[in-house]
Each structure stands twice: as structure tokens, then as C-alpha cells.
Description:
Largest sheet: none
Order of helices and strands: HHHHHHHHHHHHHHHHHHHHH
Number of domains: 2
Radius of gyration: 23 Å
Helix content: over 70%
Number of strands: 0
Amino acid sequence: xxxxxxxxxxxxxxxxxxxxxxxxxxxxxxxxxxxxxxxxxxxxxxxxxxxxxxxxxxxxxxxxxxxxxxxxxxxxxxxxxxxxxxxxxxxxxxxxxxxxxxxxxxxxxxxxxxxxxxxxxxxxxxxxxxxxxxxxxxxxxxxxxxxxxxxxxxxxxxxxxxxxxxxxxxxxxxxxxxxxxxxxxxxxxxxxxxxxxxxxxxxxxxxxxxxxxxxxxxxxxxxxxxxxxxxxxxxxxxxxxxxxxxxxxxxxxxxxxxxxxxxxxxxxxxxxxxxxxxxxxxxxxxxxxxxxxxxxxxxxxxxxxxxxxxxxxxxxxxxxxxxxxxxxxxxxxxxxxxxxxxxxxxxxxxxxxxxxxxxxxxxxxxxxxxxxxxxxxxxxxxxxxxxxxxxxxxxxxxxxxxxxxxxxxxxxxxxxxxxxxxxxxxxxxxxxxxxxxxxxxxxxxxxxxxxxxxxxxxxxxxxxxxxxxxxxxxxxxxxxxxxxxxxxxxxxxxxxxxxxxxxxxxxxxxx
Length: 511
């Protein structure tokens, strides 16, 4: 009975928190898409390509300067909370902030001073230099915001990420961007609007931390001790992971920029964010998954960890599938809807990238689980292999196949790392998501997607056709899951939580 209570309480906390985080991420993506559409429609493909390359480079410098402290501080705060070691919690908080601030200022200087070399020697584009210098200013503010959000995440508090990182930053940027366009300023001023939104968000985040820190800091007991060193030693592999994952995410953009032209980069970066709409569910569940799993691991509750991991993965895939359905069946319609007819030609690229993101959700929370149990070195080695493969495949495929080759390289490298991490988790902890009910859901999903795909040309594609297809798919999908008895008791508990959240107190499903 106690074991069941542990599982139910943990699942309820993840489900309730995920619902809140989901809407935050949804708003983030929605406003972000509006911003991207505005940016694309009021710039040339070359300008959008220059902006994409500059933001990618700043992202690399930001990842390096964070030193892996984002995920590392979340894991350690939750782990020490599980053991009731409050002094170690304080050491983790203070160390993360100080180290992140110092390194981010250092890398801001490096980025600014090297912008000319990067622009002319690597990308043969003088225009990139100015944009890179301007955006370099954002590095300390992004790093500090991310570390503060990670601290609150360690306490299972999601609202700061939703209110500040997901909503405020984008709303400020959208307002400034519209203002710039309204008074008919140039492309460079549009970039300034982005920089100002990051600075304003960073300042407000620091003020929030000072006023709302969920932990009483004992200033006379601040110290640099073995916990600080342990935090760094375990976060450095996560830094390597962050760099490698960034390489995997950005290699396509950078190598397309090297082998092709900025307009090709712009086309690829129209498809890429649409495909990554599928990551909204993984990110929503994963936000509170890490601190909860870390606490279970600190108490050696491995069986409960396995059950929660499997249940979370199953729901991640089931909730991601409808998004994949729309993007995969109607790629050209989606591209035209958001970015105009000039991007319709990258529909095949969008389908490939969407399939890769679906695979990521299918394998679930391997990265998060390994992070929670302190396997940061293993994550690093997995990422190193995958990033290396990604670079090799891009070198082979991009010159001949362009953006199709880039998307295939990305999907193959991400898929292999997920398979390998799944195997390692099973061999080390006997943790895996592939229960009998999950395999049933897999079979039903594949059959339904195939049936709808081969009949997609039955009607002329319009917004009403897409909605009709989606509604029909959801109804058949739900009935198939019920008839195949693919839902377990834990799944029913999650349905009850969802029902309460959307105002349905009495679900049809009974225990």
C-alpha cells in the first residue's frame, strides 16, 4: 500500500505539474512562432539566414558558459532535499549562481572579440559580424536566467519558468518587434529588439529570485567545499553533453551555411522549429520528472522509479502522436500556413524531422533518467558518439542532398543515441518503458498513421480538411486504445487528473 501511494503521489505531481508547464511551453511556442513568422515575412531569406547563424553561435557560447549547471543544480538540489541535507542545498544554489555569472561574462567577451573572425573566416559574410556583436550581450542574462529557473525546478516549482522564461521574454520581444516594424526600422533594429527582451527578462528573473527564493539562505554559512567541487565535477560532463547536443542541433544549420547559401539555411530553419513542436510534451513532463526521480533515487526506490518512468514515457508518446499526425500528413499545408508558399518545397524535410522528434518522445526520458541517477559521464559518452556521427553524416549527405541530407543525418544520430541509452538503462537499473500496454499502443499508432497517410489525397487540403482528419484520427485512436485495453491503472489516474484540470469531474473510465 505504501508503495502504491508513492507511485500515485509521484505520478500525480508529474501530471499536475506537466499540465501547467505544457500550457507555458505552448504559449512560448505560440508566441515564438508569431515572432518567427513576423521575422520571416519582414526580412529577406539572406537576412533570416544571417540571424539564424548568429543566434546559433550565441547558443553555443551560452551552452559552454553554463557549464552544465542548469541540469546539474536541479539534480543536486532535489537529491539533497530527498536526504534532508539543507546545507548542501544552499551550497549548490550559491555555487551555481556565482560560477555561472563569472563564466558567462567571460564568454560574452570572447564572443564579442571573435565576431569578426567567425564572420569572415568561417562564413564569408561580413554582415554576420555586427549581428554577432550585438547578440553577444545576451549571454550573461540568458545563463543567469536559466540557472535561476533550474534552482526553482529543483524545488519542483514550475511557475517561474512558465511566467518568465516562457511568457514574459516572448511577450516583451513581440512587443518590441512590432514596434520596430511599425516605425519601419531596419533588420538590425529587429535584432536589437531581441537583445533588449533578453536583458529585461534577466533583470526581472534576478529580482524574482531575491524576493521569492524557496529556501532560507544562511549567509554566514556560505562556503566553497566538497559539494561545490562535486557539483562542478558532475556538471562538467553535462557541459560536454550540452555542447554535443548543441552540435547535433546546430550542425545542420552551420554546415548548410558552409556548404550552401544563407537562403538554404533560412529554408531549413523554417521546417526545423515546426518539427520541434513535437518536443512540447517531452519538455512539459520532463520539467518536474527530474527532481521527482532524483528524490526517488536518493531513497533507493528503484521499482517506483521504473513504474513512473514507464508511465511517463507512454503518455509522452500518446500525447505527441496527434501533433505528429498533423505535421506528417500535411507538411506543405503547415509550411504555407506559417511561412508562406515560398517554403512549401521543404515539406519532405519537415516530415523527416517530425519523425525524428516522434522517435525522441517514443523512447521517452532516457536522458532525464540518467541525469537523475547521476550518470552524467555516460550521457556524455552517448552524446559524443551521436554528435560525431551527425557531423560525419552531414559531411556525406549535405553536399549532394542539401536540406534533405541534413534532416536525415539529424534523425539518424538522435535515434541511435536513444537506442543506446535505453540499453544502458536496462542493463544498469533494469529500467525500460516497453511494457505490454506500451507495445499495444505502438502497434495501434503505426496502423492508424499508415491508414490515414495512404488516404490523405482523398480530399482537397484546407484548414477544414485538416481539422476533420485530426478529429477523426483522435476519435478512432481513443476508441482503439480502449478496445485494446492499452491503459493501466496508473493511466486512469492520469486521466482523472486531466479530467479535473479541464473541468470534467466524472470520467467515463472506472477503476
